[in-house]
Write a structure and sequence with these properties.
Layout: E1 4-12, E2 16-18, H1 37-40, H2 54-59, E3 66-72, H3 73-76, E4 100-104, E5 112-113, E6 119-123, H4 127-137, E7 142-145, H5 149-157, E8 163-169, E9 177-178, H6 186-189, E10 190-196, E11 202-208
Parallel strand pairs: 1-7, 1-8, 3-4, 3-7, 4-6
Antiparallel strand pairs: 2-9, 5-6, 8-11, 10-11
The structure holds NADP nicotinamide-adenine-dinucleotide phosphate.
C-alpha cells in the first residue's frame, strides 16, 4: 500500500517550522539556518564530510521509496513568486526531488519539467484530491509531504498522513508558522516515539495506529 510520509520536518521547541518574515533573502525568516544545522552535519547532506550517526540514519529515510512529493506554495518560493513567470523554485535546474512534484497553490501555471526527473505541477485542490493525483503519479511508491507547516497541518487534520518524522531542535523561535495549531490528541491515532540524538535534537516519529 502506498503511504503518505513526512520526513525531516524540523521544528523549534515551541513548534515553529519556519520563522518570519519569509523572503527571497531569508527563506526561513528570522530562524535563519538554525532549524536545519543538524541535517547539514550529516552524510545525507554532505556526502564527503558528514556524520553517519543517528541524525544521518533518520535523515536518509527521506529519499527511500518515494514516488512523488506534495509541497505548499510557500515552500516552492518566497512571497510574490506567483508574479514571476521565470520562478522555478529555490533548487536550480536539477532539484533534489527526482519525482513528479505537486505544488499546492491558488495561482496555478503549466507544469515545468526540470533536469533529473523532477516535474513541478501546480494544483489548486483539496488535500484529498491532491493526494489522489500524487499517488497515481507515484506508481505504487509512497508520497512525501514536503511541507511547509501549513500543508503538513492541513493533511494531518484531514487524516491523510501515515508516517511523520519531525525533528525538534533546541531553539525557541517565538514566532513564525506553527505545525501544531488546531491539532489535538494525535497520540490517540498515532504511535509516537522520541529518540534523543547526541547532537542535541530529538527525532519524533508518528506512525498511524492500525
Ligand atoms: N522546517 C522544515 O523542515 C521545513 C520544511 C519545508 C518547508 N519549510 C519552510 O516552511 C515555510 C513554508 O511553510 P508555510 O506554512 O508558510 O506554507 P506552505 O505550507 O509551504 O504553503 C502554504 C500555501 O500553499 C497554498 N496552499 C496550501 N493548501 C492549498 C490548497 N489546498 N489549495 C491551493 N493552495 C494551497 C497556499 O498558497 P497560495 O494561496 O499563495 O497559493 C498556502 O498559503 C517556508 O519558509 C519553507 O522554507 C520548513
Amino acid at each position: 500500500m502506498s503511504l503518505t510520509r513526512v520526513h525531516n520536518l524540523s521544528i523549534s521547541l515551541d513548534g515553529f517550522a519556519t520563522g518570519e518574515p519569509q523572503s527571497a533573502e531569508a527563506p526561513f525568516g528570522h530562524a535563519g539556518e538554525r532549524l536545519h544545522e543538524w541535517m547539514f552535519a550529516t552524510r545525507f547532506w554532505d556526502a564527503d564530510g558528514g556524520t553517519a550517526g543517528i541524525d544521518d540514519a533518520f535523515a536518509e529515510r527521506h529519499s527511500i521509496g518515494i514516488g512523488a512529493e506534495i509541497m505548499g506554495a510557500n515552500k516552492f518560493g518566497p512571497p510574490g513568486w506567483h508574479d514571476d513567470p521565470d520562478w522555478k523554485g529555490w533548487w536550480g535546474p536539477n532539484p533534489p526531488f527526482h519525482t513528479p512534484t505537486f505544488v499546492l497553490t491558488h495561482h496555478t501555471r503549466p507544469p515545468m519539467e526540470m533536469e533529473g526527473g523532477t516535474t513541478f505541477s501546480f494544483l489548486d485542490a483539496t488535500p484529498a484530491e491532491a493526494l489522489e493525483t500524487a499517488k497515481e503519479a507515484a506508481s505504487g511508491q509512497d508520497v512525501r509531504l514536503g511541507g511547509g507547516a501549513t500543508v503538513v497541518r492541513d493533511f494531518v487534520a484531514a487524516g491523510l498522513v501515515d508516517h511523520m518524522h519531525l525533528v525538534q531542535v533546541p531553539v525557541l523561535l517565538g514566532r513564525g508558522v506553527r505545525v501544531w495549531d488546531g491539532l489535538e490528541a494525535l497520540e490517540d491515532t498515532y504511535a509516537i516515539e522520541a529518540v534523543s540524538s547526541p547532537s542535541g535534537v530529538t527525532h519524533l516519529t508518528f506512525t498511524r495506529k492500525p
